[in-house]
Amino acid sequence: MRLKKYSWTCLGLCLLFLLPFTSCRKEQFLTQAGADLRFELDTLSFDTVFTDMGSASRRFKVYNPHSQTLKISRIELAGGGSSDFSLNIDGQNTLEAKDIELAGGDSLYILASARIDPNNGDAIRLDSILFETNGSQQKVYLEAYGWNAIYVGRRGYQTRFVNEQIQLTPDTPYIFLGQLYFDSSSVLTVPAGTEVFMFGGPTSRPGDRATIVIGHNSSIKVNVGGDLNQPAEFKTHRLEEDYQELPFQHGGIYLTAESVNNQIHGCIIRNAVDGIVIDSLAPNHPTVKLELKKSMIYNVDRSCILARFSSLWAENCILANSNQYNFINILGGDYTFRHCNLINFGTNPFVGRNEAVLSMRDFEIRYDADGNEFPVTADLRARFQNSIVYGNQAEEIELGSLEDFSGGAQWDYAFEHCLLKVDTFATGQFNCLINQEPYFRDLELYAYQIDSSASPLINAGMPLNPSLADDAESKGRDAQPDIGAYEF
Q1: End of a domain among 435, 450, 465?
Q2: What is the pTM (predicted TM-score) of this model?
Q3: Which range marks the domain in which residue 75 is found?
């Protein structure tokens, strides 16, 4: 036993004696000329960046393609502190990093972002990232296009009250921030070709999402008389390609009960939570709350249009792709759709859709002071003429009524010369096409024009009074019009 213990002690002493020699051995770096780095790309482009706002970070990889370790003497942003770009090197925000060891076959992430000085105007900004290894230099170029914009509103949980006439112009893009509340007889006028970028994002808090609120005796006038050939647009402020089709990024347009004479023509609204919310009819303003013509609302989270005991006159419009409803009304109201497409195939393949394209209800559930629920009802009138209600579910029309409630409301609805996607639907439809293939041009590109002479929509509409002389793109209609927003 003693001999064994002694042997282990000797072994330990030997290891301690050898340790200084092994720890002093230096890392063997590859130092020969021409042993360069390899890059994932030669130019990192940011496309368009709003001035004074900054871009999301983009990244690329730096590779050591050799078997031995390379020491990168220096990684540096060429423009230094005056550059429109910034770097994150191996997890550190810095303008320069030195003596970075990159093992053979390993890689390193470089992140870059752009923030453009608005005083320099619209222009391409250029810079580069320098890499120095074994005395040789390599570069990755940076480029971004700065785009001046006019900022309106305040970020965060703040509301800007507007008590004046606001006239936008198509010459410069606008970025709306926070909640913009138009009040006291103010009017927001948006002409053809104007781009309004709504600040927010799919992960933003509700108060951070830009929302347009039309309040007391105020109105919104968008591209009145215009069409979808030169639309005004309300969309996300995120310019990256991945964000263009995402819903849930801004709060859309909210028409309060006290708003009046709202007109939205030739307009595209996308990326919203709700595209347009139309609140109750005010007693002193019995006219149509919203006139919607030749417009498209799509890729939204809850509803393209949510109406609550209100009124809508819609012509040549496309309501498409919502995670829930295309059009939903609560507590009755008065709604007319003429030559409209209500189409839903979902905005996200990873999110299931259980709701119908169209939902109409004559009631609302409310709660008393003790928390007991009770229904409130209101009359409902709805007309769908030469329109399409279609989607990827068997039943795309949902009707909700409290017929046995003692204060029951009056229902008056009709579908005339429409294409309907329904499972069981018998009443209120006249000369309609049921569950037939419409032959749209391209669902993935949201192109809902008729694409085949075999489409049953052609010449299946009825003449309207007052008539509609043209379609959503101002193409003329003939005496026997086609069903939907587009004439073949």
Answers
A1: 450
A2: 0.84
A3: 38-147
